[in-house]
Amino acid sequence: MSELGLRNDVYRRPLSTALIRLGLGEGWRCVDVGAGSGDVSVALAAMVGSSGRIYAVDADPLARDVVAEAAAIAGEAQIIALTQAGEDLLLPETVDLAFCRFLLLHVYEPIAVLRKMAAVIGPDGFLVAQEPITSAGRIDGRPMSMPGVRHPDIGAMLPGLVRSAGLQLIDAWAEAPADAGPGPVASYLEELTEVDPGDASIVLPPLVTVIARREANDNA
Ligand SMILES: C[S@@+](CC[C@H](N)C(=O)[O-])C[C@H]1O[C@@H](n2cnc3c(N)ncnc32)[C@H](O)[C@@H]1O
In the prediction, which pLDDT does 176 show? Predict the structure, then answer.
């Protein structure tokens, strides 16, 4: 299984918690910013059905083909893969949900991306972001790190950033997968670090989820 497939596996619970909390359903139009290989886009497409639409946006042009292939394999024709930076996000219509996961830790200016995401949601739409607090993860009790990533602990700032982007915070929480011994959590960590954690206790970086919407008096 690839790193991305594993990521989807170990972080499946935070994703489903958020989507159930949101009430995502038939016919919703969504954008998945920083879609990567499209795991989340495919999951969203299955929930919105054939009357919905998913824009899978990624700055990497190679992602477009990977997402298109994932959509074809899943039989989800309502996924539209686009090459765009989150900082330049522009869609042909407003959406009911602007989503990102493991994106803002990589971008130069997270708030600029959140503002662009806020701008594409319709008056009754939502923004959902899921970002990690890397240093709160533990391997055998020791803190994790991600050298080279711009904002490894961006999750800890996410609720405030979302408010600064002009959105009303509806809900926010953190969830961390944990395990010891062989299994998806250990395999995911080994893919990331190239080190076998053996039987060590692992707490992966908590993923902070925020659910936000446009302010009621925001008629833009
Ligand atoms: C760690 S992957 C996350 C993929 C997916 N969201 C997930 O949770 O499995 C981060 C993705 O964000 C994309 N990305 C990085 N900077 C970006 C930006 N400024 N705008 C849009 N996508 C970006 C990368 O190309 C990569 O596919």
Answer: 95
Hey, what domains does the chain have and what are their CATH numbers?
Answer: 3-132+150-176+206-214 (3.40.50.150)
At 58-99, the pLDDT tens digits run 999 999 999 999 999 999 889 999 999 999 999 999 999 999
Pocket lining: 4 vs ligand 1, CB cutoff 6 Å: yes
For ligand 1, atom 4, which residue shows the shortest CA distance? 36
109 lines ligand 1 (CB under 6 A): no
pTM across the whole model: 0.94
Residue 11 CB less than 6 A away from ligand 1: no
DSSP 173-206: EEE--EEESSSHHHHHHHHHHS---TT-EEEPPP
